[in-house]
Recover the amino acids of this structure.
């Protein structure tokens, strides 16, 4: 693997390619904003939450269990269950970016999400020089529309109506299916995919809370570790 | 435009939990040497995450979602264009939902 770098050209390139994911974030954000309004959060509160917690699935899940007085422990556990997968995604960035000074990689780490992490991993798998600027740039074009769209959803959600009508709720799944094509070609090993699908489906049925994402990703990737590619 | 103290406190805690997940994996791997087996594990994470997200979508969805997944993969094979394939798959789902009720 080539030695990593951080360039502003990478930030711009990441922002350009990351724009693909922005419509997903906006559609999802409107839904989260609408839910926040129905739970009695103020506009300032949902804006703060979107900027600081910044996790679509986790915010959706915590708002569903949001009652007053606030069940702090249940809320924190929900965030941990939903975001535990980020521990894995973050770990996978160590081999390409491990030698960078912390200020070049940690800002990008602080705001990454599934979509732009996936784009970054694909850039690296296509033999490009790992550029932490790409991670940061693609993250920035996700977090800004995210904050804005949750505010818009809070204020105007009821006027916009059900995003399901336009198939917008399917954007993230569609994006992941599209990404699967490239990774499937590169991986030459279907065990991680099959194990992840099976474990995620089982855990979703058997375990309360959104642990299935982490369980599926962990089990699937460990299955991949059984198969060490010969150099 | 106000933030209640108890809500502020909850959001701070939730954000710390979120940030810990994002930063800890990268940080902790500093202390793990990247053997071929560890490397194989890390390289398998993208395809495993794809499976963990799409498996439940396929099981919980119906014909519109199944058609959408097929359209996404098919369009990507034909066009090799992320944007066209992603939007084409969503359009497929929207049309299928309208057609199938």
């Amino acid at each position: 693997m080539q030695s990593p770098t951080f360039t502003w050209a990478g930030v711009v390139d990441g922002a350009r390619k990351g724009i693909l994911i922005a419509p997903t974030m906006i559609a999802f954000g409107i839904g989260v904003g609408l839910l926040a309004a129905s739970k009695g959060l103020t506009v300032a509160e949902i804006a703060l939450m979107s900027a600081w917690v910044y996790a679509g699935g986790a915010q959706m899940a915590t708002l569903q269990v949001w009652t007053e007085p606030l069940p702090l422990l249940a809320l924190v556990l929900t965030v941990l269950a939903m975001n535990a997968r980020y521990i894995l995604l973050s770990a996978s960035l160590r081999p390409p970016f491990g030698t960078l000074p912390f200020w070049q990689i940690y800002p990008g780490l602080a705001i990454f999400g599934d979509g732009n992490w996936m784009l970054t991993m694909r850039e690296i798998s296509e033999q490009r020089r790992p550029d932490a600027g790409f991670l940061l740039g693609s993250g920035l074009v996700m977090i800004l529309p995210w904050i804005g769209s949750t505010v818009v959803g809070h204020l105007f959600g009821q006027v916009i109506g059900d995003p399901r009508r336009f198939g917008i709720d399917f954007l993230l799944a569609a994006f992941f299916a599209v990404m699967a094509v490239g990774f499937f070609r590169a991986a030459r090993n279907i065990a991680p995919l099959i194990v992840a699908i099976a474990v995620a489906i089982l855990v979703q049925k058997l375990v309360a809370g959104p642990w299935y994402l982490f369980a599926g990703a962990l089990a699937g990737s460990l299955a991949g570790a059984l198969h060490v590619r010969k150099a | 435009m106000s933030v209640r103290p108890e809500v502020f406190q909850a959001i701070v805690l939730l954000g710390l939990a979120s940030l810990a997940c994002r930063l800890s994996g990268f940080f902790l791997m500093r202390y793990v040497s990247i053997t071929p087996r560890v490397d194989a594990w890390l390289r398998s994470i993208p395809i495993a995450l794809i499976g963990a997200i799409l498996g439940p979508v396929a099981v919980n969805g119906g014909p519109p979602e199944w058609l959408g997944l097929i359209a996404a993969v098919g369009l990507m094979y034909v066009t090799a264009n992320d944007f066209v394939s992603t939007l084409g798959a969503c359009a497929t789902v929207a049309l299928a939902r309208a057609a199938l009720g």
Remarks:
- Residues 46 and 148 of chain A are 10 Å apart (CA to CA).
- Chain A has two domains: 8-185, 188-231.
- Residues 132-160 of chain A form the longest helix (29 residues).
- The two ends of chain A are 13 Å apart (CA to CA).
